[in-house]
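Annotators were shown the component list below and the corresponding predicted structure, then asked to write short factual statements about the assembly.
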Amino acid sequence: MLVVEDVHKSFGAIKALDGVSLSVEQGTIAGLIGPNGSGKTTLFNIISGFYEKDAGNIRLNGKSIDGLDPFRIARMGLVRTFQVAKAPAKLTILENLLLAAKNQMGEKVLDNFLKPREIFRKEKENLNKALDIAEIIKLKRFKNEYAGNLSGGQKKLLSLGRVLMANPDIFLLDEPTAGVNPVLTLELVDVIVDIRKNLNKTFLIIEHDMNVIWHLCDLVNVLVAGSNLTKGRPEEIQKDERVLEAYLSGSKST
Amino acid sequence: MGVLYFFVYLMIMANVYGILSLSLNFQAGVGGMSNFGHVAFFCIGAYTSTLLVMLCHVHFLVGILGAFIASGLFAFLISIPTRRLKADYWAITTLGAGEIVRLFFLNESWISTGHYSGGPFGIRGIPRPWESIIPGNIYPFFYLFLTLLFLGLTYFILQRLINGPFGRVLKAIREDDDLPLSLGKNIHEFRVKTMVIGGAFAGIAGGLLVHYTTYVDPFFFMPMETFIVWAMIMVGGIGNNRGALIGTLIIQLLYYSTRFLKDYLPIEAQLLASLRMISIGILIVVVMLFLQEGLVKEKKRLY
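Structure shown to annotators:
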């Protein structure tokens, strides 16, 4: 599904990524962990087209996505979230969700005047879907509230809601549960597991909450200082001395 | 009677500037694009319609259509090379574009309709539409109705775009590029389209203005005109079309009615002209200090 081969990226003298490779199989949930500054988010930015890489190549469903604009990669079925949750402040929760729907006829100028009825029907469909998603992310009672008034954790939930609405083939989630309370985190884990099981979707998830990683992932990739340290099943990674050492020496977070 | 005709004139100007402020609000208020050269489209529309009607002898409505197309094309032309610029750099280029257009018509004096015409002479004798069949004393009322029709059309079209999925994307782009990009929105294309649509409607306003004044010259289109339109949308409420129209009315009232103060106050006309701009300036400062979102807030879309 997603294949990343030998990706390099430097910022000035800092080698953020020094030959990272990984692959994510269709219908699996892959984790991406590593201490702060190990290059996880940089890798996300490169995969989703926001950064240009210095070397390496990336394929999505067998097709190269090197050098494509972010919006083209999104249209090919890869949608990512951001580490610091983004939410247009002057759009309501529902509008934020509706924004994410793909192939919206109403985004074409002339169709607004040539096919108003079809657009109305499509909006209605999307609206129902958005309301269902608002229910899942527990924001339904704020549906008409401006997103700018939400807390940090709620914005994280909204980000997750938006990718659910966008319904891509592969989800790249950057710390989806950071700032979300533990009970809701468990529910979100269930939502992700359900989507994978019922819709055969694919996930690549950056997460510092190891509980989430152990529960969710089929395969965990560990990055340290811009290189692959190891990969394996969660229970293998959990026992790996090198992973523990990298976390303890890199920073005290986890 | 004098008061009535003055009022009609005021409303005609309010309608013309209403089209300008709606189109600027579409770009700047909803799309977050700080266009400081809106007057360029106003100017191109004015000259295009004038030249089409006077030199090609087409009907007024064809002239207006030409103004719509020509200023839309110009918007397309300037938004292609600038579409990836950051907001502040982009704003400066639009300011430059506005001056380029004005100086073009000021200096290219071959764009004329005869002797002592074109360039700084301006163009005189622009025909008023349907003037031969409408009696002079009711003509202002007819033109008021005509401009109101175009204002209504502009309002309807822009409002529909703002309220639908197109406007939703624009409002997202207004705050941040990355999120809409991550959701598959081609933000550069949206920006170009927004410029073209806003520019094209501003062109209509230009045509409507000069077919009433029957005269045009490049000094109609000083950079100050753009900022007056900005004042209208800032006072009325940026991002809200009804606010933009209310702001237009307030600024126009302030602008035109103050000229009668000289009849009542011992002030020289020249001083009064300066005081007029000062009063608009003070109004903006007061609104920005106490009503940041303007008189009418942006409307929340409820479901």
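Statements collected:
1. Residues 89-149 of chain A form one domain.
2. The longest strand of chain A covers residues 14-24.
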